Amino acid sequence: MNQFNDLSSLPAYLSSRRSGRPRDMVAPGPDAAQLRSIVATASRTPDHGKLNPWRVVHVAGDQRDRLAELLTSAYRAEKPEAGRLEIEAMETLARLAPEMLVVLYSPRESSKIPLWEQQLSVGAFVMNLLHAIHAQGFVGGWITGWPSYNAAVRDQFGAAPEQIAGFLFIGTAGQPLEERPRPDLDAVFSTWQPGTT
Does residue 135 contact residue 41 with C-beta atoms inside 8 Å? Predict the structure, then answer.
């Protein structure tokens, strides 16, 4: 495959979709209007019950140093024995790519819609954010990792029972995108045979 995120047609794009590595992203990233358009497009995600069990928080470029302080402080609080390389990894994460979105899973626990369906919706929402990013001509990358599961980090963007579904990094590919291994189709696709397991 010679071209990733081929926007010549929807089938071409879907069959060539590839996330970018946040560490390889460079400017430019989307401007404020493009970011709003990306989130608006992603909001067309399947959402049983019309609950919108997701939110997005933009972390601006001039807020990255503060985010680095937050991540390193929370990491040290949880892991006081952390070494220099672990702390540097948190600082680096905070400063990756021109733009960053924090996506929150915001469950509606009082709803009759099962939480599992709400979780499926937030995953689909993040995937649609990536599609919308690529449709704008940028490259996106979805990362979770330690900060997504730390309550002190989450509390900077929301409150329990919310959870961080991931950090979405957006920019221009500074290095050529490379293919990654994909599953063998026969390992993940089959035809139902009634009466068999």
Answer: yes
Contact 38, 157 (CB under 8 A): no
What average pLDDT does the segment 164-193 reach? 96
Distance CA 104, CA 126 (A): 10
pLDDT number for residue 197: 63
Residue indicated by tokens 């071409």: 12
Q: What's the pTM?
A: 0.94
Contacts of 29 (CB under 8 A, 6+ apart): 97, 98, 99, 138, 170, 171, 172
CA 145 vs CA 45, 60, 83, 88: distances in Å: 24, 20, 17, 15
pLDDT tens for each residue of 69-121:
999 999 999 999 999 999 999 999 999 999 999 999 999 998 899 999 999 99
The type of residue at 149 is Y
Tokens of 172: 């221009």
Q: Among residues 35, 20, 29, 34, which one has the least CA distance to residue 102? A: 35
Q: Using CB atoms within 10 Å of the CB of residue 17, give its burial: 0 to 12 exposed, 13 to 18 middle, 19+ buried.
A: middle
